[in-house]
């Protein structure tokens, strides 16, 4: 059905499924896209993952994640550049032009660059608590990565995260901050993702989405809900659309008005959802997307 033509289910939503299972589920659901996390690629190896994706006929909507650019010590900075260059090459091999960048938190509290969301706590790295300097280091590392990204035709997609993650995951908290960071670079090299979970609260969201569209920077639209009460692990407070507080009608309309007509990824971190049968999760995502998201997007003809 054309309702689901641009729907992509990110592997984080069915976290316990293998890459083969995630691909099969997406195909069986009639989807044309899938969002991949690097851990699923690493489980089978890049070469095998590329072959599996090609065989499935699915298009990879994005690869998650690169980033973690806030280290202050030379060794940490070099490691971050090496890991991000590897991620760029993985994205290219998998056939996606978009790699989601979670830029990193305060170095003394940031999760380690190779950590997988939902899989553990913070690991301290050298760098201190100065958030202004941490943001400057993000800008410096981004400038170093842009030529490599351009060479390989992959866009670095900055993801602002909810402020409650500023210490351990992202010193970028608003879409406006992400756009300011992207501004010095070509649009084909640096974009932004509008993730409803992270930005729904922002008083300037409508204005910044319009700005992102006018600048040609919207590379991805990700949806899930912000549920209450907040989980003991705040990372796991995402839910199915409709289970929380987010106004998908307004945000979807703003994204559509900004000119975005690309893939819509559903990315959910939620321990209860992870424990459901995979097919049930996929069916629920499709139903909620058709009811709450698709009607407000210009990308869909029902």
Please supply descriptive tags for the structure shown above.
single chain, 302 residues, alpha/beta, 10 strands, 15% strand
Textual characterization of the structure:
There is one protein chain. The protein is of the alpha/beta class and 302 residues long. 41% of the residues lie in helices and 15% in strands. It is built from 11 helices and 10 strands. The strands form 2 sheets. An 8-stranded parallel β-barrel has the order 1-2-3-4-5-6-7-10, surrounded by 7 helices. The protein has a two-stranded antiparallel sheet with strand order 8-9. Strand 1, helix 1 (19-28) and strand 2 form a beta-alpha-beta unit. Helix 2 packs across helix 3 and helix 4 packs parallel to helix 5 (131-152). It is globular, with a radius of gyration of 18 Å. The termini are close together.
């Amino acid at each position: 059905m054309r309702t689901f033509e641009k729907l992509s289910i990110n592997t984080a939503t069915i976290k316990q499924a293998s890459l083969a299972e995630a691909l099969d589920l997406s195909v069986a659901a009639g989807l044309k896209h899938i969002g991949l996390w690097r851990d699923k690629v690493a489980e089978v190896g890049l070469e095998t993952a590329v072959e599996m994706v090609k065989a499935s006929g699915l298009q990879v909507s994005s690869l998650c994640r690169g980033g973690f650019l806030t280290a202050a010590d030379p060794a940490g900075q070099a490691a971050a550049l090496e890991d991000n260059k590897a991620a760029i090459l993985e994205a290219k091999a998998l056939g996606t032009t978009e790699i989601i960048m979670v830029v990193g938190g305060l170095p003394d509290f940031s999760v380690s660059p190779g950590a997988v969301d939902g899989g553990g706590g913070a690991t301290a790295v050298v760098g201190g608590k100065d958030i202004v300097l941490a943001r400057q280091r993000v800008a410096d590392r981004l400038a170093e990565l842009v030529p490599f990204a351009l060479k390989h035709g992959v866009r670095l997609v900055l993801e602002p995260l909810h402020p409650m993650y500023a210490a351990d995951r992202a010193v970028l908290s608003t879409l406006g901050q992400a756009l300011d960071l992207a501004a010095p670079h070509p649009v084909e090299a640096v974009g932004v993702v509008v993730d409803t979970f992270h930005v729904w609260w922002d008083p300037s969201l409508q204005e910044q989405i319009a700005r992102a569209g006018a600048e040609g920077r919207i590379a991805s639209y990700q949806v899930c809900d912000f549920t209450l009460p907040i989980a003991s692990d705040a990372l796991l407070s995402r839910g199915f659309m409709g289970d929380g507080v987010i106004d998908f009608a307004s945000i979807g309309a703003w994204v559509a008005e900004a000119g975005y007509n690309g893939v819509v990824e559903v990315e959910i971190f939620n321990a209860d959802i992870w424990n459901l049968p995979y097919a049930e999760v996929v069916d629920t995502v499709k139903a909620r997307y058709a009811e709450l998201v698709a009607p407000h997007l210009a990308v869909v003809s029902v």
